[in-house]
Design brief:
Blueprint (H helix, E strand, L loop, with lengths): L43 H19 L4 H28 L6 H18 L7 E2 L2 H14 L8 H21 L11 H29 L8 H10 L13 H21 L8 H9 L1 H15 L38 H7 L1 H22 L12 H17 L6 E2 L1 H10 L1 E3 L11 E4 L4 H12 L4 H5 L3 H16 L3 H8 L11 H5 L2 H22 L7 H14 L7 H7 L14
Antiparallel strand pairs: 1-2, 3-4
Helix pairs in contact: 1-13, 2-3, 2-10, 2-14, 2-15, 2-17, 3-13, 3-15, 4-12, 5-12, 5-13, 6-8, 6-17, 6-20, 8-10, 8-17, 10-17, 12-14, 12-21, 18-20
Amino acid sequence: SGINAEYGAAEIDEDKRVRYPVVGYSSELKEHYDPLSRTGRFFGGLIRDVKALRKRYLSDVRDGVNLVSLESVLLMFGLMLAPAITFGGFAGKHTKGEYGVIEMLISTCFGGLAFSLLTGQPLTVFSCTGPIYVFEVHLSHFCHEPFIHFDFLQWRAWIGCWIFLFFTSFSFLELGFLINYFTRFTEEIVTVMVSLIFLYEAGYDIRAVFNENPITSVVNSEEAKYCKLSRTPLDKKHPGCPNTALFSLILMMGTFVVAYCMKKLRKSQYLQRRLRSVMSGFGITIAMILMIIIANLTQSVYTEPLDMPDTFRHTSIERKSWLIDMFDTSYTSISIPNLAITAIVPAFLVSVLIIMESHLTGVLVNNPSHRLVKGCTPNWDTFLMGVILLVCSLLGLPWLCADSVRTMTHIKTLTVYSKYSAPGEKPRLLYIHEQRVSIVVVHILMGVFLLFPKLIQSIPLAVLLGVFLFLGFLSLSGLQFVKRFKMLFMSAKYFPDYSFTRKIRTAKIHSFTILQFVLTAIMFGIKLSPVSPVFPICVIGLALMRRYAMSSLFTEEEIQELDPEESGSEDDSDRE
């Protein structure tokens, strides 16, 4: 299988409900240990993780030299490129050009490359995620409020310094055990809330296109030609470019429908498993290419293009250097010391968000059903993320985080199944190629794509709206919360055969679902309000509520069935 046997087998301590694999070493480290357990020594967990990483590093490289890893590179490149361009395009629009596509690609290339080269769990994909994107956009809105007037990138630089301090403290003090407070109950609410934000943003932006370019029944050929050639709307004497709104809607829905159908192909009965997997993995890329071709063939209709510099420079023309001047007072309404102090609060909030998402991704990666044998290094990975986020902040690049959706897809592309199985039975998972070559190559290719700015500029914003719409629906797939919400409208005899449907009364299942629904609605309302940057505090509140208040509403057995503290429940198998 290409995996060294010296690492032993993964185990789960049922009594302690360990959420990471217990790794045994046959040479120097004889004892079994939980990577989240505390050594009781300052730097103890970090040193332990570095030793574990040193023992496995060469095997991570050797195990990546195979055709499966090559196929993974091709699939993951398309899957990561499209969201990076989408997040970058809309970040430039919603942050008033503070950073955009070029900064997002640079951050994904170099930040992701550094993480994939040095992490102890190379199956994890480190890229921009929905919650981080949403937080940064609202942070930018806060900075541009008339009564605030902070320099967004300068404030982010100070926030990055505090993030590094928080992450370093978290790693040195071995606080990884705190992740046990963040269970699926909290994770699902945050995921659904971010998905709703994506859907809302897509609808809001396409509505703005209709407001700027109302549909007209009279089309002047000269006006249409002017719109297409100038790549800008007409002056204020005209209501907008003819048919732009309708064509933008077609491009958005076309991108979504093609990507969604290609994604569904993975679980269909057509074609062979490997071919279905390849086509499904390239689904979002195929959808974008198809709609870009249609947009460029339709010369008579103007569509707003993606804003991308022609040369290797910042998105903002006001920036003179890649390094942020943290002590410049030209664009800030308060003194630099006060600016640094005010950065503590947002730094703490985004640190909670990133650590929660990263460690929950680690829980999914190290699911016992994956049969991983090399273990993980959570303390070292946390420290590494802090360093990368500090560098991104000082260079004005977007923040990155462990991406659970693309991480699970990366694992699927490296999974080897049995070739033969009984009729009606699913192929059995044999092993997963635990290596770091594939994701390293993907991040390098992301950097190579920066050499083709004209290709990026050919992408209409309407196509990216379709990607946003698709990402919103994609994040909802496989969530137990979504399945239980559908069950609210079903007869009990048609419930899916899950463990909780067999052991828990229907009224209790519905009560748990309604509680999550109400909390999600509250979180969504907060995200749409002026106080949206503080939503990580609400995430902490959800975790504390789950830990200390749920026992008054549900029994311990009901909680463990509906929201188990350990991963690997049977109803999570289709999550992607």
